[in-house]
Amino acid sequence: MRILLVEDEAKVASFIRRALEEESYAVDVCADGMQGLAFAREAKEGCYDLIILDLMLPGLPGLEILKVLRKEQITAPVLILTARSQVDQKVKGLDAGADDYLTKPFAIEELLARVRVLLRRGSGEAAGVLQVEDLILNPATRDVTRGGRRIELTSKEYALLEYLMRNVGRVLTRPMIAEHVWNLDFDTFTNVIDVYVNYLRNKIDRGWDRKLIHTVRGTGYVLKAQ
Amino acid sequence: MNSQDEIHAAPRGIALKVRLTLWYGIALGVILAIFAGTLYMVLARGLKDQVDRSLEEAATVAVKALEERRVGPYVRFDDLVDEFPELAVLDKFFQIFSPTGTITIQSPNIRRRDIPLSRTALGAALAGRAVFESARFPQEPPIRLLSVPIQYEGTLTHILQIGTSLREVEEMLHHLLFTLLVIGPLALAVALGGGWFLAGRALRPVEAITEAARRIAAGDLTQRLSASQSSDEIGRLAGTFNEMIARLEGSFRQIQRFSADASHELRTPLTVMKGETELALRRPRSAEDYRLVLESSLEEIDRMTRIIDDLLFLSRADLGEIRMERRPVRLDVLVEDIQRQAAVLGQEQGIEVLITLVQPATVLGDELRLRELVLNLVENAVKYSGPGGRVEMALEEEESVARLTVTDHGIGIPAEAQSRIFDRFYRTDDARAHDPKGTGLGLAICKWIAEVHQGRIEVHSELGKGSRFTLILPLAVPAG
User: Using a CB-CB distance cutoff of 8 angstroms, which residues of chain B are in contact with residue A10?
Assistant: First the structure.
């Protein structure tokens, strides 16, 4: 899951990024409104699964960024983050197309919970749990089980699996996976993705008759029930 | 809640409309009463005078006749009337008394047989004077009597008494009194009604103002009175009221923006501290990680302390609670002092702070505050200069003012921001990026100190080329 964080306070941006990265999200940070808008709109469709937007920004206010994004049909969920707590400010933000609103100072756990909710909304998942056949992933606890058996995953493996499960049945190309799961450029990375998919297969599909992770030759991977 | 109570308490006591009407009614009532009383008295007096005059006329004629003809003591009335037809007047009766006061002749139209001659009348007759008297007998209208002495060659021969009933006069006066008592209150009632209506009309715009004021008190400062543009008292009141609300709205907005800014500035360090601390506590970390969090928290605590100190200073300044000395301050000494201080500060960042020109100048004021002001300007200049930059200070004396300039060759201030940099919490994006620790209140404080010293601060700046701040203060003793 790739998140764009537009926040000018360096220290605030820094701890939010660290917190998100600890949850295995890929994070890009912009400290300036214009740059933030450029990132959000120039990136390919669906590049960011979530945008966290501060309202008071140098260059371009967060609300303006939001309006431009919505006008241009960029539908990634937006979480507004601001020190302004007046109701009319919240209303303005939500009316401009924001999906959620968090007032500074906020609790890290609440921010992470809201991030999970917004990401869940995009995938149409109901109870906060992702499930494909007997494979269950709980983003809140980061527990993964198959057939009731707990599966231990590393942070990257978990991120990769979550991305695959949020896009059940959809073929994900290697560049897409690189963008949403890793923070690095795709070119130097193809191998690493294959390696990680292999790790994941070993933990998820080995010993089961019904395989869930499938290779689409020449394109990428897809997770689906047979 | 409180203000609501006060507003609703306003109609307590008697409403202005009622009071106006009441005053109007009382004044009118008094005038009416005086008018009616006077009218009654004048009329009563006039009517009585008229009665007296007619009695007098009749008496004059009768006395003349009786004196000329020398009427003897025993005369028959009919003979008398035959001789003096003037005496046979219907509405009057007469009696003739002997000098001792016994009745000798009575006109037949007298109703009572016993209207004796009073002692006063007898005394007056003996003294040769005529006298008017009023008499009242039970169950009868009052009567008016005129007693006239009739003399023959200096001796009193008869006393003639002519009388008439005052019934008509009494009736007329009663009638008048009745009319006044009925018409007066009626007129008063009509006038009160009219007064009530007029007071209501005159006060209707006041009601409108009250209504608007109530809405405004409820928090809607965008309300304005739509009173007509007339230039009467109410129109002027409405105009003044609107101006006042506009000013109120302006300062309310300013306060709103200020408190929003203040809360934003205070929330940011709190957000950092809360976020970093919570993040650190989510799982076990290395000692180094904890140390970094604590260091960062300390920075934020310092930042908050600075903001709160500055805010307290400004709010005390707003309330006029800051005490200011007014002593001669040698600005040239101050400038040299600060240059030494700032030079050390600048050295760490490779910035040179130097004095290009200093002329002796003395101003009246508070040395500590002025030092704070100049130091703040110089610190800003150092802050926004790039490494290897140069900050120049100069002090010139010019007619009656001292001009202290602080010039840097740093990032400069965008033209559109130059008028706002003295606003509380206003910081340009560049300034924010350049100095995240700043409070955004320093220049507001500088401006306040300059203004308290009857001075001002001017700014000339070009984006990317640098800024020059000029502090202009009146000299203690003008040069010359």
Answer: 436
> Which chain B residues have a beta carbon less than 8 Å from that of A8?
432-433
Where do the domains of chain A lie?
A: 2-123, 130-223
Look at residue B22 and tell me if it is in a domain. yes
Residue B229 is predicted with a pLDDT of 56
Which residue in A has a C-alpha nearest to residue B427's C-alpha? A58
Does this model's pTM top 0.80? My answer is: no
Min mean pLDDT across A4-8, A126-130, B352-356, B381-385 is at A126-130
With DSSP H G I counted as helix, E B as strand and the rest as coil, what are the percentages for chain B, rounded to 5? 55, 20, 25
Hey, which residues does B461 pair with through a beta bridge? B467
pLDDT in tens, B103-121: 777 777 776 667 788 888 8
- What's the topology of domain A2-123? Rossmann fold (3.40.50)
Which CATH number characterizes residue B94's domain? 3.30.450.20
Which residues of chain B, if any, have pLDDT below 70? 1-14, 67-90, 111-113, 226-231, 478-480
**Main-chain dihedrals φ then ψ at residue B397, nearest 5 degrees:** -105, 135
Same domain for B26 and B135, yes or no, is yes
Q: CA B170 to CA A80: how far, in whole Å?
A: 99
Bridge partners (DSSP) of residue A102 are: A81
Dump pLDDT digits (tens) for A143-187. 899 988 899 999 889 989 988 988 888 888 888 888 788 766 556
In the β-sheet with B103-106, what is the strand arrangement from edge to edge?
A: B103-106, B92-97, B155-165, B143-152, B131-135
Packing angle, helices A190-204 and A155-166, rounded to 10: 80
Q: State which residues form the domain around B207.
A: 1-220
CB under 8 Å to B278, separation ≥6 — which residues? A107, A108, A109
The answer to whether residues B65 and B204 belong to one domain is: yes
Top residue of B272, B296, B432 to mutate, by most chain A CBs within 10 Å, is B272
Reported as a single tens digit per residue, the pLDDT across B229-281 is 566 777 787 788 888 888 888 888 888 888 878 888 888 899 999 999 999 99
Residues of B in contact with A109 (CB under 8 A): 278
Say how many CB pairs under 8 Å bridge A and B.
Answer: 66
What is the nearest CA distance from A130 to chain B, expressed in angstroms? Answer: 24
Chain A residues in contact with B275 (beta carbon < 8 A): 12, 15-16, 19, 105-106, 108
State the complex-level ipTM: 0.71
Does B282 contact A22 at a Cβ distance shorter than 8 Å?
A: yes
Contacts of A107 in chain B (CB under 8 A): 274, 278
Give the model confidence (pLDDT) of A86-104 as tens digits. 788 888 888 888 999 998 8
**Domain A130-223 carries which CATH code?**
1.10.10.10
* Tally of structural domains, chain B: 3
For B290, the 3-state DSSP assignment is: helix
Q: Computed over its alpha carbons, how large is the radius of gyration of chain A? A: 18
Q: Which of B268, B273, B278 sits opposite A83 (nearest CB)?
A: B268
* Yes or no, beta carbons of A105 and B275 under 8 Å apart: yes
pLDDT given at position B133: 87
